[in-house]
Design a protein that fits this description.
Layout (H helix, E strand, L loop, with lengths): L14 E7 L5 E11 L3 E6 L2 E6 L3 E6 L14 H9 L6 E5 L2 E5 L10 E2 L8 H13 L6 E5 L2 H8 L3 E12 L13 E4 L4 H7 L6 H8 L4 E8 L5 E10 L9 E10 L8 H15 L2 E9 L3 H9 L3 E10 L1
Parallel strand pairs: 8-9, 14-15
Antiparallel strand pairs: 1-2, 1-5, 2-3, 3-4, 6-7, 7-8, 9-16, 10-15, 10-16, 11-12, 12-13, 13-14
Length: about 325
């Protein structure tokens, strides 16, 4: 690449190439989609995985044209994956606005209480936003839109919508089948969450009946926990299954969510153990792919998921207006 430093071209969602300094003094290029950029670092998803480049190590950077289209690919598009994920965490109420989904569940989680802005809403943007605001005002909820980072989120920010929780969708392949792992001591897989599971998952507040309905809303789900001999819950996670969408994301997907470790038992590898147990559970039921959603700033969680094979697929944002 020509050694140009074009900072104005470093826009999240664009394909870029970033030449950067390595620890040994040599240089390397990261070519792929820019999924995050702040004052300290750039995050580029390349064909080999995610590359985090400290700003201080950037030697040159610029936007590049999209990669040539391949005739055949197994890569699931952002639109397909967002619709797959929506089937794992269904709201109590849903109204469709063209291809957009207006979702509500009494305020339990952003995923179940935001308008999923994928595709064409069937009207101009001003009308669509007015409909979104009216839907949530009628339910005494903040008007919130969830959308992949890109032109729509940029337009919403220009209109004064406030970003809440920039997040990543990460994916992993489960085929060929995962190697057998010894089950963690105290592992349980239950069809429904009991009170102690819920208490570990939602230390910030009660789940309530609406929350239980959302947690049990997928085609199939399982609630994993690791407990000690006295029944104390040390770690929890939820695994869910869906069978793809009409857009063509074929096969069964495993969704991983609600991964939590009790504060007194962190740094013992329990989150990795319960995550691997759910990946094995999904593979046994025919899932070929897995996904999860994690906040961009949650570096410890991202490191955990990368350890078990997940890589960044795309970034999305919640915006409140």
């Amino acid at each position: 690449m020509k050694h140009a430093l074009r900072l104005d071209e470093l826009v999240v969602g664009r394909r870029v190439v970033v030449r950067h300094r390595l620890p040994d003094g040599s240089a390397s290029d990261a070519l792929g989609e820019l999924v995050a950029a702040d004052e300290e670092r750039l995050v580029v998803v390349t064909r080999r995985g995610e590359v985090v480049v400290p700003r201080a190590d950037v030697l040159a950077a610029k936007a590049v044209p999209p990669a040539p289209a391949r005739r055949q690919t197994s890569q699931t598009s952002i639109e397909e994956l967002e619709l797959v994920a929506a089937e794992h965490w269904r709201p109590v109420e849903r109204e469709d606005l063209g291809a957009w989904r207006l979702r509500a569940a009494g305020g339990f989680t952003g995923r179940a209480n935001s308008a999923l802005a994928i595709g064409d809403p069937g009207c101009d943007l001003d009308t669509a936003l007015a409909r979104v605001r009216a839907f949530y005002a009628a339910r005494h909820l903040d008007a919130m839109i969830a959308a992949p980072t890109g032109p729509l989120t940029q337009e919403l920010e220009l209109r004064g919508w406030q970003v809440r929780t920039p997040s990543l969708v990460m994916t992993a392949r489960l085929d060929p089948p995962l190697p057998a792992q010894a089950s963690p001591v105290g592992l349980r897989l239950d069809d429904e969450p009991d009170d102690v599971w819920l208490a570990t998952y939602r230390g910030r507040g009660p789940v309530g009946e609406v929350g239980r309905r959302v947690l049990l809303s997928a085609d199939e789900q399982v609630f994993a926990s690791i407990r000690d001999d006295d029944g104390e819950v040390l770690a929890v996670a939820r695994g869910s299954l869906s069978r793809g969408t009409p857009l063509g994301a074929e096969g069964t997907w495993l969704g991983l969510s609600a991964v939590e470790t009790a504060p007194a038992h962190r740094r013992r590898g329990l989150a990795v153990a319960v995550t691997r147990a759910l990946l094995a559970w999904g593979a046994q039921r025919g899932a070929a792919r897995a996904f999860l959603q994690v906040a961009v700033v949650n570096d410890p969680a991202r490191a955990l998921y990368e350890k078990v094979g997940f890589r960044v697929h795309h970034e999305y944002r919640y915006l409140v207006g």
